[in-house]
From TrEMBL:
Organism of origin: Desulfoplanes formicivorans
One Pfam assignment: 2-thiour_desulf
PANTHER family cross-referenced by the UniProt entry: INNER MEMBRANE PROTEIN (PTHR30087:SF0)
Domain of life the protein comes from: Bacteria
InterPro entries from the UniProt entry: 2-thiour_desulf, DUF1722, UCP037004
Secretion signal, residue range per the UniProt entry: none
Protein name as catalogued: DUF1722 domain-containing protein
Domain DUF1722: 192-308
Length: 317
C-alpha cells in the first residue's frame, strides 16, 4: 500500500528534540524498520500546549490514579487545564486525518498509555496512571489500535499491532469504496481466517451479523461490525488458535496432496505447535500449495499475508 497507513506518534520517538531536557527517545524500530510502510503524524502534547524546550519535568499527581493532575516536579505548577484545552483542539485536528492508530511514549505523564506513575499527596508513586493526552486520545478514539513504543519490542505485541494497522487501512479503503452489504461481505470473507485465529466466537458472531445485513440500517450494520472486529483483533492469537486455522487451511488440499506431502505439512504444523519453528514456516508451505493448486479462495485470505513479508513479523511468533 506504500505510505498510506497514517499513524499518530509521539514526536520524541521520531528523534525530534522535544523532551523536557531537549533530548529525544528515537525508536529505530519506528524510524528505520516501520517507516517505509507508515506515514507518521508527530505529536508532542507538552510542546503543543505551549511549554518551552527545555522545561521543568512533569509528573502526574493525586490520590485517584484515574483522575490525576499534571504538575511540574519541583515548582508544582499545574498544567492540567492547559493540556486539556490544547488536547481538545488537537483531537479535532487528528479526527480529520483518518489515523489508523497511535504509538505513545512509555511512562510519559502526557503520552503514556499505561502504568504511568501517579504521586499521591505523600509523594508516593503508584504506577497505575495514564498520560493526560493519551487518555483523551483513547477516550475520543476507543476503537483505534494504540501501543507504546516499549511494548512494540515484544514480538507478539508488535505483530498484533501492525496487523491491526493494516486491517484498519483495509477497512478505511472499503468504506471509501462504499458502505454496501456486498463490500462488507467481501471484507469479512477475506479476513475469515485472520479473525478465527484471534477470536473464533467473535468470527461466528460477526458472520451472523453480516447475514442479517439486509435487516439493519447501514450505519448500524457497519458500526456494529467494526466494534466486533476491533474487539476480536485486539485479542492476542495463540499457538493453538493458529494450529486450528492451519488445519482448516490444510483441508482445502485433501484431494490434491499426496500422502507424503500431507504428512510433511502435518509434521511442520506439529513443529510449530511444539515451538521448534515460527509461524512463517507452515504459512509459507500453505502459500506454496495455494499457488501450486490455484486455490483462489485461500489466495485472497489476509491471514496468509497480513503485512509485508519484509517486516519479518511472523518470523518471531
Amino acid at each position: 500500500m506504500g505510505k498510506t497507513i497514517r499513524v499518530g506518534v509521539s514526536a520524541c520517538l521520531l528523534g525530534e528534540p522535544v523532551r523536557y531536557d531537549g533530548s529525544h527517545k528515537r525508536s529505530r524500530l519506528l524510524t528505520d524498520i516501520l517507516a517505509p510502510y507508515l506515514e507518521y503524524v508527530p505529536v508532542c502534547p507538552e510542546v503543543g500546549c505551549g511549554m518551552p524546550v527545555p522545561r521543568e519535568a512533569l509528573r502526574l499527581t493525586g490520590n485517584n490514579p484515574n483522575m490525576p493532575r499534571l504538575e511540574t516536579r519541583t515548582t508544582h505548577i499545574d498544567y492540567t487545564e492547559q493540556m486539556q484545552r490544547w488536547g481538545n483542539r488537537e483531537l479535532e485536528r487528528l479526527a480529520t486525518l483518518d489515523l489508523c492508530g497511535f504509538i505513545f511514549t512509555p511512562k510519559s505523564p502526557s503520552s503514556g498509555m499505561e502504568r504511568v506513575k501517579v504521586y499521591n499527596d505523600k509523594g508516593v508513586p503508584v504506577a497505575k496512571g495514564v498520560g493526560i493526552f493519551a487518555r483523551m486520545f483513547m477516550d475520543r478514539f476507543p476503537l483505534l489500535p494504540v501501543e507504546d513504543s516499549g511494548r512494540l519490542y515484544d514480538p507478539g505485541l508488535r505483530e498484533n499491532f501492525i496487523r491491526r494497522l493494516f486491517v484498519m487501512k483495509r477497512w478505511r479503503s472499503m468504506l471509501e469504496a462504499g458502505k454496501t452489504t456486498g463490500n462488507l461481505v467481501a471484507f469479512h470473507t477475506r479476513h475469515k481466517y485472520m479473525i478465527m485465529s484471534q477470536h473464533l466466537r467473535g468470527y461466528k458472531d460477526m458472520g451472523r451479523l453480516v447475514a442479517r445485513g439486509s435487516e439493519l440500517e447501514t450505519d448500524v450494520l457497519f458500526d456494529s461490525y467494526f466494534a466486533m472486529l476491533t474487539k476480536a483483533l485486539s485479542l492476542k492469537t495463540t499457538v493453538n488458535k493458529n494450529v486450528n486455522v492451519l488445519m482448516h487451511l490444510m483441508g482445502y488440499f485433501k484431494r490434491d496432496l499426496l500422502p507424503d506431502a500431507k504428512q510433511e505439512l502435518l509434521e511442520i504444523i506439529a513443529r510449530y505447535q511444539s515451538g521448534h519453528v515460527p509461524l512463517i514456516v507452515p504459512i509459507t508451505m500453505v502459500n506454496h500449495y495455494v499457488r501450486l493448486y490455484r486455490q483462489k479462495y485461500l489466495e485472497e485470505q489476509w491471514y496468509l499475508h497480513p503485512h509485508p513479508v519484509e517486516l519479518q513479523l511472523l518470523n518471531h511468533v
